[in-house]
Design a protein that fits this description.
524 residues; alpha/beta; nine-stranded mixed sheet; 10% strand; globular
């Protein structure tokens, strides 16, 4: 019987259920996804070994062993999921899982470094006392044992390969884990609809370099790189959270993207990707869902560890502290790092490249240093479009956000504004209103992309603002200044309202008289 996407997501959900009440929902992914990944690697490796055993059935054993060494990756028998499953009642099962994962990394260091060593499966602090921890780990192994992830057993649709099905299930569950984690999910997950919009905007072509400086789980990067079925695309991502780095590397591997470069570290203080001269590497397409208004974003630039709020020596971020000259146009405030990330992306953008970045609305209108930076960016003719999104769309925050589009080598100096947070010409919302999390449907996505490509005024939806308009607004980019979504209220007929009030008074008087009559009849 073939394995479907639903089978895979069901197994992942069973794994999450096994952890319920023991660890925080935000950490489900840290335990469930690595176990599933070991199952995936084991099943794929076992199938390849079976093929070799059939092919070399009559050959000498050493020939078979030599051919095994040419396989894309190796899973030693002691690390195989089946071996772990058979040992699930062992007193030291947590230690055995740790050892297996470390060994898989060591045997495949070039491809899997940093993927499976971020979580301690033997931690009583995280998983409870020994007996409780062992029961959870045993159940977790049992959750995945029936799942057959051999490529030959994956049910695919036309145009799909097994990696597409497993990858889609993996990304779907990242979304589900984000939903369970709630506000703690903002650091690793971008809603699929927002990723789709950004992927269509950057429009990656064959041979492009694609980059996400705050890549989280890597799903946004994969969506951007694969949207146009472009070949020979090189993927780069950096992420400061170790758990998210591991998730991103697993995500890439499952999607059979084996050459992705995912770095761990502070993108602002220690950018990982540089050219041969030590300058920032330039990218053709950049996508990002950066942390909103990150506080203390410049802490990594503090060379002497000076105090920030008190003490003898105060630290103040200066442009000279950044060897890459990203802040020559201005230094963002210490408590709001939005423009710090945006300036990093702009500095990392190749000529004719495109950036699509999610940002809070504050970057559009806040003054002081941010206002000066915004003015310089506009005057340099880099900002291409501002797309307002509905509120409550992201798991990390309920506030509305926007997508900023930057381009170098623009042929025009106007800026397109799109407001996708209100109603369309028929009075219908431009998004799907939901109890917990609002969503964007396919029509809503298509409307945004159509407006972006057409670059023309659409009543209550889109406006192409001239540079003169922007100047008249003192470089304030608040969307309502450019897209009028005001809805006129119906005129009230005062005489009709007064007549209705008079009629209501008569009806109330008649009802009270009737009530008095009933009360007298009852002797009350």
């Amino acid at each position: 019987m073939s394995t479907t996407k639903k089978d895979i997501t069901s197994a992942l959900m069973r794994g999450a259920d096994s952890l319920r009440d023991t660890i925080d929902a935000a950490n489900y992914k840290d335990y469930v996804l690595p176990i599933m990944f070991v199952k995936y690697l084991s099943d794929c490796y076992n199938e390849e070994v079976e093929k070799l055993e059939k092919e070399y059935s009559g050959a000498r054993p050493e020939r078979l062993e030599r051919q095994k060494r040419y396989l894309p990756f190796r899973v030693a028998e002691s690390c195989n999921f089946k071996t772990l499953f058979d040992q699930r009642y062992a007193e030291n099962i947590g230690e055995l899982i740790n050892m297996a994962m470390r060994q898989i990394e060591a045997d495949n260091n070039q491809q899997l470094a940093g993927v499976l060593n971020t979580v301690d499966f033997n931690s009583e602090n995280a998983l409870g006392t020994k007996d409780h921890k062992n029961a959870i780990l045993r159940t977790l192994l049992e959750d995945f044992e029936p799942l057959d992830l051999r490529p030959s057993q994956i049910e695919v649709k036309e145009g799909q390969v097994p990696a597409d099905v497993i990858g889609d299930a993996y990304e779907y569950m990242i979304g589900e884990f984000a939903r369970m984690a709630g506000k703690k999910a903002g650091s690793f997950y971008t809603p699929a609809a927002v990723s789709e919009i950004m992927a269509r905007i950057v429009n990656v072509q064959s041979g492009d370099r694609v980059y996400d400086p705050t890549c989280g789980s890597g799903s946004l990067l994969i969506k951007a790189a694969k949207k146009q079925n472009a070949s020979q695309v090189t993927i780069y991502g950096q992420e400061v959270n170790g758990s998210s780095v591991a998730m991103a590397k697993m995500n890439m591997y499952i999607h059979e993207i084996r050459d992705a470069k995912i770095a761990w570290g502070d993108t602002l203080a220690n950018p990982a990707f540089k050219d041969d001269d030590g300058n920032l590497l330039l990218f053709d397409a950049i996508v990002a869902n950066m942390p909103f208004s990150k506080d203390k974003w410049a802490a990594g630039f503090n060379p002497g560890g000076e105090a920030v709020g008190s003490g003898v020596k105060q630290f103040k971020m200066e442009p000279s502290l950044d060897r890459y000259h990203r802040f020559d146009w201005g230094v963002p405030p210490a408590s709001k790092g939005d423009w710090a990330f945006l300036l990093h992306m702009i500095k990392s953008l190749a000529i004719d490249g495109t950036i699509a970045a999610v940002a809070p609305h504050g970057v559009l209108f806040r003054g002081s240093a941010e206002g000066k930076i915004r003015q310089r960016v506009i005057e340099e003719n880099i900002l291409d479009a501002v797309i307002g999104l509905p509120e409550n769309l992201f798991y990390g925050t309920s506030i509305p956000a926007c997508i900023l589009v930057f381009k170098k080598g623009r042929k025009t100096d106007d800026i397109l504004f799109i407001d996708a947070s209100k109603k369309d010409e028929n009075g219908d919302l431009r998004y799907i209103k939901a109890t917990n999390q609002n969503e964007l449907g396919e029509k809503h996505i298509d409307d945004i992309i159509k407006a972006y490509k057409n670059r023309a005024d659409v009543d209550k939806f889109a406006h192409v603002a001239t540079l003169e308009e922007i100047r008249e607004n003192d470089f304030n980019l608040n969307i309502p200044r450019y897209v009028d979504t005001f809805e006129e209220e119906e005129l009230i007929d005062i005489e009709e309202v007064q007549k209705s009030i008079a009629d209501l008074k008569i009806e109330i008087a008649e009802a009270e008289a009737k009530m008095d009559e009933y009360l007298r009849a009852l002797g009350l």
